[in-house]
Specification:
five-stranded mixed sheet; alpha+beta; six-stranded antiparallel barrel; 643 residues; 17 helices
């Protein structure tokens, strides 16, 4: 290889802060200016311009690339763009109705206090828009009564002096598809091998001394409903949860009993005194409380932070699924709730997306974790305003405690600007029964003395049983009540005397014994007014007030009339064998029959207000018109008397 065939080795251009040797040489070299008369031949003959230098172009390219790299490195990093929410939801992936953190890169608004007092100063620069409440802040208490039917029958047998000894096996039976089956059994029967769901003939072959009694399913449900109302001594929201369970929303109620642990012990002690064994648990969701009460520890308490850890080892039947779905999940290898959580939702959604709630593990899992809301549906709503007196010993008469409860209740109503329309006294008996009595008012009231007097003749209807240790006074129906000053000397003249008289008469005589006249939208006089119970809240329609007599007869009385002008007002009439000469009259006022209620041949009426020579005014009418082809000669009647 000759020297001419070797490639030239170019030096790497120096940094931007130093001067390259090539640039220095170019600066010191003399500049060769091209003359105007130099043409292409001159350029071609010059050895410098015969071919462009490739090393110069490569050096400039490398320098430009190096500068671009340095500028890119020196540029501050741009923030990552906020991820946009995908509007498309894959099958089986639920859209959450609440969020625990910021959304779309924006800080979540800070929830402010609702109803801030006037003049209060809030920190500047802070958004007080309320946000949705975290569902995991709720506290649900589940009560499982595994032997409720058997223990209830033992209580009934004890009252009949027919309770069997503890060592005698007893079982309750119900009708099955192939004969009677075991519904519940005692501990002695369980020790002999008797179990629920087996046929009676098979269990009798196993245990010949087994005593069979048919179960009262309807009675058990009624007793469970009564027990559900009795559980409202701990919290206002309770409901039946299956054939052997109760669910309580104890959010904000546990501190009244010394905390959740003390509350659970109190519930368990009182149920044990009634003869019922119970398993209890508290959790943030209904599903988690249900599962821990049946599969958890004794008086189990689960916090929101430990929810996922506590439910993961539970079997899939803790999700309240039916037996077929649990068997299917077991065959798929999903034996625990944690196994179900680990599986991608899209895989299970292809199979269970259209299944009902008891057969849908995805929906049940969302309910257990709080992603899907599961509100408590109570059969009877608790009163909005209520006060209670917890007694140290059972008593038989609540009269001594009623004035203090009325004063406390009316103070709460006054603070909120409400008045009570219905007030109920409820006593919680020591034998698990609940008894109550209720009174009503004609208008909203928060007068403690008046409300207390309404119960004077009502408390005798309460059956105290063996005594009660808790009394509750609640306003079941309330309405807004504002105090308006109508007198110059200060107090408000609200015309409550008539309303209080109506309340006392109704409390003594009964609801349907005291009535009042209520306008009815009809132009026929005998239909324009109806009599309704005085305490019934009826919206009065807007009716044009016409000149009507103070006294209106139930049945119009016929009179004999002497005409002064044909088809005109009467000149005189005879009523109750007394002749009345008409001095003045006004009318007629024609009232046509109501075609949607009256018979087809009903005649119209022409009413006159007349005054006789005794200066007495009457309201008379002519029934029909001559030639209306709906009857004979028109007749006259007296329908009312003016004052």
């Amino acid at each position: 290889m000759t020297h001419q065939d070797k490639l030239h080795v170019l030096p790497f251009p120096a940094a931007s802060g130093t001067t390259a040797p090539r640039r220095a040489a170019a600066a010191t070299a003399p500049r060769q200016d091209r003359s105007p008369d130099s043409g292409p031949d001159a350029i071609a003959s010059s050895p410098q311009h015969s071919r462009p230098d490739p090393s110069d172009k490569l050096a400039r390219a490398i320098a430009a690339l190096r500068g671009a790299l340095e500028a890119e490195v020196a540029k501050p990093p741009a923030p990552d763009p906020a991820p946009l929410e995908d509007p498309y939801t894959p099958v089986g992936t639920p859209k959450p109705r609440w969020r625990a953190g910021p959304e779309n890169g924006r800080s979540a608004p800070v929830a402010g206090r609702v109803g801030v007092a006037a003049g209060a100063v809030t920190p500047s620069g802070r958004d007080h828009t309320p946000r949705e409440k975290d569902p995991l802040t709720r506290r649900m208490t589940s009560i499982h009564l595994p032997d409720f039917a058997m223990e209830r029958w033992l209580r009934w047998a004890a009252t009949q002096a027919d309770a069997p000894p503890d060592d005698v096996p007893v079982a309750l039976a119900v009708e099955g598809p192939h004969g009677p089956v075991i519904h519940a059994c005692t501990r002695a029967a369980s020790g002999e091998g008797v179990h629920t769901g087996a046929r009676v003939v098979d269990m009798r072959a196993l245990c010949p001394d087994l005593k069979i009694v048919y179960a009262d399913i309807a009675g058990d449900q009624v007793a469970l409903q009564k027990l559900m109302l009795w559980m409202r001594r701990w919290c206002p929201w309770t409901a039946v949860d299956g054939p052997t369970g109760l669910i309580l929303d104890t959010t904000g109620s546990d501190h009244l009993w010394g905390g959740e642990a003390a509350m659970l012990r109190d519930i368990e002690e009182k149920l044990s005194a009634l003869g019922f064994s119970a398993n209890l648990a508290v959790a943030p969701t209904h599903g988690a409380a249900w599962a821990l009460a049946r599969l958890g520890q004794v008086r189990d308490i689960c916090t929101a932070e430990a929810l996922n850890m506590r439910i993961a080892p539970l079997p899939v039947r803790a999700l309240r699924l039916d037996a077929d779905t649990c068997l299917l999940l077991d065959r798929l290898g999903l034996k625990t709730v944690g196994d179900l959580i680990a599986v991608p939702r899209i895989s299970l959604a292809r199979r269970f997306s259209r299944a009902a709630l008891p057969q849908n593990p995805l929906l049940r899992l969302d309910q257990m974790t709080g992603t899907l809301a599961e509100p408590l549906s109570a059969q009877y709503d608790p009163p909005r305003f209520a006060v209670q007196a917890n007694l140290a010993e059972p008593v038989q008469d609540p009269t001594a405690h009623l004035p203090a409860l009325c004063t406390e209740l009316c103070a709460g109503l006054d603070a909120q600007g409400f008045g009570a329309r219905r007030i109920r006294v409820t006593v919680f008996r020591t034998d698990g029964e609940v008894s109550h009595v209720e009174v009503a008012t004609a208008r909203p009231s928060r007068d403690a003395g008046h409300i207390c007097k309404l119960f004077d003749d009502k408390l005798d209807a309460i059956n105290p049983g063996f005594g009660f240790d808790l009394i509750t006074l609640g306003a079941t129906v309330v309405e807004a009540l504002t105090t308006v000053q109508t007198r110059l000397d200060g107090p408000a003249d609200d015309d409550s005397a008539l309303a209080q008289l109506t309340d006392r008469l109704t409390a003594r005589l009964g609801t349907h014994a005291v009535r009042r006249a209520v306008p009815h939208p009809s132009h026929v006089p005998e239909r324009a007014t109806r009599w309704e119970p005085a305490l019934q809240h009826i919206k009065t329609p807007d009716i044009i007030r016409l000149a009507r007599p103070v006294r209106l007869f139930d049945h119009p009385e016929e009179v004999r009339v002497l005409y002064a002008v044909p088809e005109g007002p009467p000149a005189q009439f005879v009523w109750r064998r007394v002749t009345h000469k008409v001095i003045r009259f006004e009318g007629p006022e024609r009232i046509a029959p109501e075609w949607w209620q009256d018979m087809p041949r009903t005649r119209l009426r022409d009413y006159y207000r007349v005054e006789d020579h005794y200066v007495r005014r009457y309201w008379i009418y002519r029934h029909g018109v001559l030639g209306d082809t709906r009857g004979d000669t028109p007749r006259w009647f007296v329908h009312g008397v003016f004052a």
